[in-house]
Amino acid sequence: MELRAPLPDDYAAIRQIVRAAFYKSRFDEAGVIDGVRADNAVAVELVAVEGEEIRGHVLFSRMTCDPPAPVVGLGPVAVSPAHQGKGIGDALCRAGLAACAELGAIGAVVLGHPTYYPRFGFSREAALPLRSPFSDLPAFMAMPLTPGGLDGVEAVAYPPAFG
After folding, report:
1. I want to staple 54 with a disulfide (CB 3.0 to 4.6 A). Which of 2, 13, 143, 149 is the partner?
2. Euclidean distance between CA atoms 84 and 58, whole angstroms
3. How far from 163 is each of 11, 25, 26, 122, 160, CA to CA, in Å?
4. Do the Cβ atoms of 42 and 61 come closer than 8 Å?
5. pLDDT of 9-33, one tens digit each?
6. Dihedrals φ, ψ of 107, to 5°?
7. Distance, CA of 139 to CA of 136 (rounded, Å)
8. Is 60 within 8 Å of 6 (Cβ atoms)?
């Protein structure tokens, strides 16, 4: 399996995978990806490819912070339903977090499943000092990408595409 940045020719396949993975969601995750791209708010975006087939996708967005800081938001991450449970989402998240750190991000936030994302280092405790529209949700978690990376960050906001 190869992890790489998506090409514009991959966008239709990404949209299809995201819609299939989030078919029960009331939220348009594929539309969020399009909106983040349109707002030029992509920090890191990766696809997992096997042969010619895209099997998964992850997006990291640049967050707006107070005070300003290079913090990213993980999500959405999606894997084709036929290929879930094979470590593709895990590989995408880990590679994306490493790429964000290499680009200078000091921390990351996620609004996601409270039992899935701690495996990468996210915790509810790290998110408690951060003001956000999601601050009161157990699914809102954070992690520093550098030692003390989130120290002094008081608030974070997702790009407008997240609504």
Report:
1. 13
2. 14
3. 21, 15, 13, 23, 5
4. yes
5. 999 999 999 999 988 776 788 999 9
6. -165, 165
7. 9
8. no
Domain residue limits, the chain:
2-162
Q: Tell the residue number behind the tokens 């990408």, with chain if given.
A: 145
Q: Pairing mode, if any, of strands 42-50 and 53-62?
A: antiparallel
Strands (E), the chain: 2-4, 42-50, 53-62, 64-66, 71-79, 107-111, 140-144, 155-157
Angle at which helices 29-38 and 11-21 pack, to 10 degrees?
Answer: 140
Decide yes or no: CATH 3.40.630.30 for domain 2-162. yes
Instruction: Give Cα separations from 60 to 36, 51, 52, 90, 136 (angstroms).
Output: 9, 24, 23, 14, 22
pLDDT of residue 10: 96
Q: Which two tokens stand for residue 96?
A: 């994306």
- Dist. CA 87–CA 120, nearest whole Å: 13
- Find the DSSP H helices in the chain: 11-21, 29-38, 88-102, 124-127
Q: What pLDDT sits at residue 28?
A: 87
Q: Residue 25: its pLDDT value, please?
A: 73
